[in-house]
Amino acid sequence: MVKDGPVGATALPRTGAGVFVPALPAPVREPVGAGDAFAAGFLAGLLRGLDLPACLRLGHLTAVPALAAAGDTAPPPDPGWTARALALTDAQWAALVPADLAGARSGQPEGGRTVQNAAGSGHGGGSRG
């Protein structure tokens, strides 16, 4: 997997072409821990048997609450919120603002000092890792 800051992330399978999923815009309170959250979401998707695009999306969705949290940890995204986002078409995903997935709970995107994308870069906001 290659994370490209606020642009998105690419999964590189052993065979075939890489799979790119754009990052989500996210309010950033604290970027520390967001890269780990992204990796946890991506790996959780692999363990669930999801395809690579869904794994990358789950990584982005898991990073968003971590970016919005005041510390270096955040609760996982709401399962209903996550299911709605994973079901979006590519065009809907590209236009998504996380707050559009109503039903957010504590740790979901709201507030924050700047808007960055969930893949982040470790340079001025976003996730690192």
Sequence-ordered SSE layout with sheet pairings:
Elements: E1 2-4, E2 8-11, E3 19-22, E4 25-28, H1 34-48, H2 52-68, H3 79-86, H4 90-94, E5 114-117
Antiparallel strand pairs: 1-2, 2-3, 4-5
Helix pairs in contact: 1-2
Keywords for this structure?
129 residues; three-stranded antiparallel sheet; disordered C terminus; alpha+beta; globular
Summarize the structure.
This protein has helices spanning 34-48, 52-68, 79-86, 90-94, and strands spanning 2-4, 8-11, 19-22, 25-28, 114-117.
Would you kindly provide a written description of the structure presented here, covering whatever features stand out?
The protein is of the alpha+beta class and 129 residues long. Helices cover 35% and strands 15% of the residues. The chain is built from four helices and five strands. It has helices spanning 34-48, 52-68, 79-86, 90-94; strands at residues 2-4, 8-11, 19-22, 25-28, 114-117. The strands form two sheets. It has a three-stranded antiparallel sheet with strand order 1-2-3, covered by helices on one side. It has a two-stranded antiparallel ribbon with strand order 4-5. Helix 1 (34-48) runs antiparallel to helix 2. The radius of gyration is 13 Å and the shape is globular. It starts with a strand and ends in a 12-residue tail after the last strand. Mean pLDDT is 77; it is low at 102-129.
Order of helices and strands: EEEEHHHHE
Strand content: 5-15%
Q: Which structural class do you get from the secondary structure elements?
A: alpha+beta
Cα(first) to Cα(last) distance is 11 Å
Low-confidence stretches: 102-129
* Quaternary assembly: single chain
Largest sheet: 3 strands, antiparallel
Tell me the number of strands.
5
Number of alpha- plus pi-helical segments: 4
